[in-house]
Write a structure and sequence with these properties.
Bound molecules: adenosine-5'-triphosphate, magnesium ion
Strand content: 25-35%
Largest sheet: 9 strands, mixed
CATH architecture of the largest domain: 2-Layer Sandwich
CATH superfamily of the largest domain: Bira Bifunctional Protein, Domain 2
Oligomer: single chain
CATH class of the largest domain: Alpha Beta
Radius of gyration: 25 Å
């Protein structure tokens, strides 16, 4: 990316409703822009990050044997009437009418559509198990869309659905997906917890959430520091008032609270705040029964599929990475999510030596397949440096005044350290660093 030609509209200020770091920095860094309440456009840098996350999700799911499909985003209301959810989903489900006055829904989730697709096409136990997923737009008319990509109305979700001939096999797949999700969030460079969860409106038993630990998280969790036990407070507190009171407390406030109960491993439990980035449910036969989706077992008896469902908030993850990785100056992308690994900052493009080294380095690194940008704008050094910090490239090579002495600098965004390097060794140093 040549910065002088790129569409990366960074700004000094964020709108006043952007209170969370991710919301602020993604807007200011020119990653996204707001199109209306809970509606966002992804500009070039935002789109690269989103696609990187999507690619990791897809790679791990494909490896685990799940198959990608794509369902239509607009679904006929009849589908939701048959499952009973046209009643229970309430106002979150946005309904629209076409020119014939037929009613449709912008998909908030896709259990029904997926069951309908598989129904009558998979008819024998021999064709099971089956795990299908999509990474597609969802629409939920959230009561309070806020915090930028964290809680949008239109957002990108990976939703997966599996079909089985027995409960045991469904649980085996549930465990496989738990392991796969852990791989995904680890590859994204996130500090996360798997916690026992409430199954909410989707129904069924056995439900786990994946939370990125961050002070700004909307969920309150109880976690053990010694073992990997964790639970959403919604599952372990009985009274609604108690849950709401705990949820309303800030990270600082809940840190002060002690928990009387101990973990089954004997250690102390603590409160944490989390951002829900994934949710897996054991559905059982809730939807297959309601929609009469059957297969024939070994004895030729018709039975409803045993099902599980698996979600990941793909666009929410863009924000979650930044909630966990930022500082006062802006974004600090992880290696697997950075829009570009390296930025070459030519301090004064009118200086021939600086300019030609910058250009040479840029072309050579690009040729070697490295994700590199060059800031070749006619701007002041300080301005370009601030921009690089706001956007959060993991490394910036500063080609500046010191080049007179044969020296350039490598700036590490995370540690903010500047390392002087001989100009004729910088290519090797960079390729070593990015290995
Ligand atoms: P939440 O409790 O945060 O409202 P949910 O339980 O309604 O989420 P699921 O139905 O489990 O969400 O959806 C799967 C995943 O989609 C969630 O784990 C979350 O990461 C993501 N997600 C849900 N709602 C939104 C939203 N409004 N904006 C962005 N991502 C969302
Ligand atoms: Mg959920």
């Amino acid at each position: 990316m040549r910065r002088s030609r790129a569409f990366v509209p960074t700004t000094k200020e964020a709108p006043s409703d952007a209170t969370l770091p991710s919301h602020k920095f993604l807007l200011r860094g020119g990653f996204i822009n707001s199109q209306g309440a809970g509606l966002y456009n992804f500009m070039p840098l935002g789109k690269i990050v989103l696609e990187k996350i999507r690619a990791i999700v897809k790679e791990e799911l494909d490896l685990a044997g799940s198959q990608e499909v794509q369902l239509s985003f607009v679904t006929p209301i009849g589908l939701w009437e048959r499952s009973g959810r046209s009643e229970t989903m309430g106002k979150e489900m946005l309904r629209i009418k076409d020119r014939h006055a037929s009613e449709f829904v912008l998909s908030p989730t896709n259990e029904e559509a997926m069951v309908e697709m598989v129904k009558n096409r998979v008819t024998s136990y021999k064709d099971l198990p089956l795990n299908l997923y999509q990474i597609n737009t969802k629409f939920r008319d959230e009561a309070r869309p806020r915090y930028g990509l964290m809680r949008g109305r239109e957002f990108l979700m990976k939703d997966g659905y599996s079909f089985h001939s027995s409960v045991e096999d469904m649980i085996r797949e549930f465990d496989l997906m738990e392991a796969t999700y852990k791989k995904i969030f680890t590859r994204l460079g996130l500090d996360f917890r798997v916690v026992a969860a409430d199954s909410g409106a989707i129904g069924g038993e056995g439900s786990k959430e994946f939370h990125v630990l961050a002070n700004s998280g909307e969920d309150t969790l109880v976690v053990c520091e010694a073992c990997d036990y964790g639970a959403n407070i919604e599952t372990i507190y009985e009274s609604e008032e108690e849950i709401d009171a705990l949820k309303a407390k800030s990270y600082e406030e809940i840190q002060e609270l002690s928990i009387e109960k101990r973990c089954s491993c004997g250690s102390e439990l603590h409160f944490k705040k989390g951002i829900e980035v994934g949710h897996i449910f054991q559905l059982g036969t809730k939807y297959s029964s309601a929609l009469e989706a059957h297969f024939n077992d070994e004895n030729g008896r018709a039975k409803p599929f045993e099902m599980a469902t698996f979600g990941i908030g793909v666009s929410r993850l863009v924000a979650a990475v930044i909630e966990q990785n930022h500082d006062e100056e802006g974004c600090v992308w992880t290696k697997s999510t950075a829009p570009y690994m390296l930025n070459i900052l030519v301090s004064n493009i009118k200086d021939d030596a600086q300019n030609s080294l910058g250009e040479e380095l840029y072309n050579r690194l690009k040729g070697a397949g490295i994700e590199v940008t060059i800031d070749d704008r006619k701007e002041r050094f300080g301005f370009k440096m601030k921009d690089a910090e706001l956007i959060g490239f993991p490394y910036t090579v500063i080609v500046g005044k010191e080049l007179e002495n044969g020296i350039v600098e490598i700036f590490d965004r995370k540690t903010k350290e500047n390392t002087p390097v001989n100009a004729d060794e910088v290519y090797e140093k960079i390729t070593e660093l990015l290995k």
